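Sample intake sheet
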Amino acid sequence: MSTAQSDKHSFVATGEFDVKIAPPHMIAVPANASAIGRHALEKAYRGGLNGRAQGEMLSAGQPQQGEATYVALESFDGTLDGKTGGFALAHLGEMDAGGEELRIGIVPGSGTGELAGIRGQLLIRREAGKHYYTLTYWRA
């Protein structure tokens, strides 16, 4: 769990996180439409990114059959490489028979405190029941 400068303008922070996702609250949709679930989520980050996040996730599809999509926003508060502040992350995750694709980015304009102006991308890796992240970030 470290932080390194990947080039003269961007940095990389790595670490681990825990996530709690609440059971879905089903959103009202037309009678023959696909169901949409709303889930509250909470995360605790450790490593270069150290703090907590809360957010909301919307999901649709049939995850039990390997076909689904989710979108989420989470708001982080804590420290990044010793700088205090916060920012929001936007998620888009899709899965089907061809595999999974996940895109997570820092929401432009969401940085606060010493993290004002931050931009970047977050990658997630799951291994042996644990979640790991790699955050590549820079100042806009």
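Comment: The chain is about 0% helix and 75% strand. The mean pLDDT is 93.
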